[in-house]
């Protein structure tokens, strides 16, 4: 089937590429010329495992195309999947500017009936509104249907998640739309759930907000563990053996970041207030996370009266391992605080450097190895548990740093190893070491 995808970000690009891999002929549209130029050379503008290979393969086999020319791409398209960003407005609501720009572009250009599929995460009721908007703006005689098809991939495993999705949710009341989308996803052989558009939109928010809540709950318990002398590692191990709880998303740390959890919790909370209902659990998840971000620096302040003039090593800056994405990464405000106090910050991250450099072009020193970042440092913060950071011998801190004061926001190292290595080690929800 021929499919057009609007947006070549983490969702649009991975979706388009995986649909091409499944045998469809896919054209991806993005207004950013630089991205399209890279893609046309077979290079992914984002870091995502397996993506480069799939782009090259499907370009070569002639079923994957990239363009900035939306007119050409939308005019005769029968299915257009929208995967553009829906970032946060200042008040916490979802910003639908990009979505409506695409809706307008489709309405202006479509010369045949088409199905518009909204994959972007959008507030409940948006699919209805976009369909009404299309009906009002599209040329006479052309029928545009809108179906919800929220995305559940996680960055860092986006290709794997798309090719092996836990479920495909389709929100539509239309038989034709359901049939078309079932056909599109048939090669993936994944469970397909069909429901009303509003329910489909809610599945996405409820899923993300539940995961955010789980993280904030564990962090809340971790903070209490510190004050009552318990160890969150033991606590979560004990909890996770209950199959009703499970072992996923039970890792204590300095909170969630990324382009989804922060904005999706705020957007649903905002929407609930608009509806006159206070979503207390989600509100609590947001509040806990806001405080959690600064948990490590608070610990460091107990050991250092000021960071002025100190060399600070920062290991990991992306919001999680496996991605180059820095959106809402806890590293950003923490590094800002350190710089404002006059610290000399030396950063190591295996793939996040380029994006971090856009935020801190001159104030931060970038290093090419963990050892280089640690060399002669007075203290170190671990913000991202990249495998090479998590799996390195903990003795590296004492071997390389001037004074091995280590603040670990992802509980990477065993307390026993830290004690044996003689480092001053502070982590989240676990007893202080040395
Ligand atoms: P992104 O910012 O990485 O990508 C958005 C892309 O859309 C950009 O390349 C941008 O240039 C492009 N764009 C903007 N205007 C356009 C237009 N008029 N026509 C075509 N393209 C246009 O965003 P993302 O992370 O891929 O997220 C997209 C949506 O999917 C959001 O609603 C997000 O909440 C949701 N989502 C994201 C993830 C994730 O892990 N990133 C997972 C599930 C759902």
Automatic annotation (TrEMBL):
Pathway: Nucleotide-sugar biosynthesis; UDP-alpha-D-glucuronate biosynthesis; UDP-alpha-D-glucuronate from UDP-alpha-D-glucose: step 1/1. Residues 313-415 form the UDP-glucose/GDP-mannose dehydrogenase C-terminal domain. It catalyses: UDP-alpha-D-glucose + 2 NAD(+) + H2O = UDP-alpha-D-glucuronate + 2 NADH + 3 H(+). The active site is at 260 (nucleophile). SUPFAM superfamilies: 6-phosphogluconate dehydrogenase C-terminal domain-like, NAD(P)-binding Rossmann-fold domains, UDP-glucose/GDP-mannose dehydrogenase C-terminal domain. GO terms for biological process: polysaccharide biosynthetic process; UDP-glucuronate biosynthetic process. GO terms for molecular function: NAD binding; UDP-glucose 6-dehydrogenase activity. Its EC number is 1.1.1.22. Coiled coil: none annotated. NAD(+) binds at residues 30, 35, 86, 121, 263, 327. The keyword DNA repair does not apply. Substrate binds at residues 204, 249-253, 257, 320. This is UDP-glucose 6-dehydrogenase. It comes from Niallia taxi.
